[in-house]
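sry for the spam today, last one i promise. struct tokens for design, 152 residues
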């Protein structure tokens, strides 16, 4: 049989496995975000120790991501008094509707739980604002009215 029709192994026909992408820019975190990253690393280490050998590769890839995030994490400096920033809960009105969001680091962000990353467009519009301030957003002047800011 010709070598052109032979398969060396099944591995060469699998899709390549890439590393998980790291968000660009600084890895600013809240104290809660830093604790979540450390908990995730510890959890993955436990899972790897208990997993069968053939299931460890994906877990090890995840662990490399979280170890990198732990090593590069920087606690965000606290914002000024009554100023929206990383680690604050902000209440505001956008297009007449009241909303409350927490501004957090990338790995802590969960839009379904009203936590957005500091790099999100809405968070960038809010950061540095104080209660009562009118903010431009999405090409509209005075689209946001900031009602309150509190630390989380």
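last one done:
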């Amino acid at each position: 049989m010709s070598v052109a029709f032979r398969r060396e192994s099944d591995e060469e026909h699998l899709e390549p496995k890439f590393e998980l992408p790291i968000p660009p820019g600084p890895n600013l975190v809240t104290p809660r975000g830093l604790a979540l990253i450390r908990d995730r690393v510890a959890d993955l280490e436990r899972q790897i120790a208990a997993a069968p050998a053939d299931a460890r590769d994906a877990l090890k890839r995840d662990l490399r991501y979280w170890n990198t995030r732990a090593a590069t994490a920087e606690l965000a400096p606290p914002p000024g008094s009554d100023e929206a920033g990383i680690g604050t809960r902000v209440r505001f009105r956008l297009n007449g509707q009241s909303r409350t969001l927490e501004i957090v680091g990338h790995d802590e962000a969960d839009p379904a739980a009203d936590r957005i990353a500091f790099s999100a467009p809405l968070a960038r519009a809010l950061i540095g604002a104080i209660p009562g301030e009118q903010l431009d957003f999405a090409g509209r002047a005075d689209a946001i009215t900031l009602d309150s800011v509190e630390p989380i």
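The mean pLDDT is 89. ok im logging off now
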